[in-house]
Design a protein that fits this description.
It is a single chain. With 139 residues, this protein is mainly alpha-helical. The protein has a single domain, classed as Winged helix-like DNA-binding domain superfamily/Winged helix DNA-binding domain (Arc Repressor Mutant, subunit A). Helices cover 50% and strands 6% of the residues. It has helices at 5-19, 28-35, 39-51, 76-84, 108-124, 127-133; strands at 55-58, 64-67. Strands 1-2 form a two-stranded antiparallel sheet. The two termini are 23 Å apart.
């Protein structure tokens, strides 16, 4: 499984908002500068994050974006699912009809368990964990 830039950048946006979770909105330009994400692309990702009610926007000269949840309530897995959907490592684990060998495949259960392990790990790590583990490495 290869995560798209949407998942990776989306996580970095949430992480940056969490770093500045003081009640003051953070502007797109500030996020883009620190996280080195092009402004146009960042704006697209912010729309998705707003639609999913993970962030909110404040209008005006001192406007910007804020998290709607505390960092300890946002898992990496939830962000990845938001941008990728519940992706399987191998398509046949969730859609056996797409593989002519699904019924007799000896490896299919391994792919399924690996997918579960991946999402279990991603679900176990929150944005707060990343903030507390290595503050100098969260950029």
């Amino acid at each position: 499984m290869k995560l798209s830039t949407r998942s990776r950048y989306g996580t970095r946006i949430i992480l940056e908002l969490a770093r500045h979770n003081d009640g003051e909105p953070l502007q797109v330009s500030a996020i883009a500068k620190v996280q080195k994400i092009p402004v146009k692309y960042l704006e697209q990702l912010i729309r998705t994050l707003k639609q999913e009610k993970l962030i909110t926007s404040v209008r005006g000269s001192k406007g910007g974006h804020l998290l709607t949840r505390q960092p300890d309530q946002i898992s990496i897995g939830s962000i990845v699912r938001m941008f990728e959907g519940q992706t399987e490592l191998v398509e046949c684990t969730s859609a056996p009809e797409k593989c002519h060998m699904a019924d007799e495949c000896r490896v299919r259960h391994v792919w399924s368990e690996a997918t579960s392990a991946l999402y279990s790990k991603l679900d176990s790590v929150t944005i707060a964990d990343l903030l507390h583990d290595a503050p100098e490495q969260i950029r």
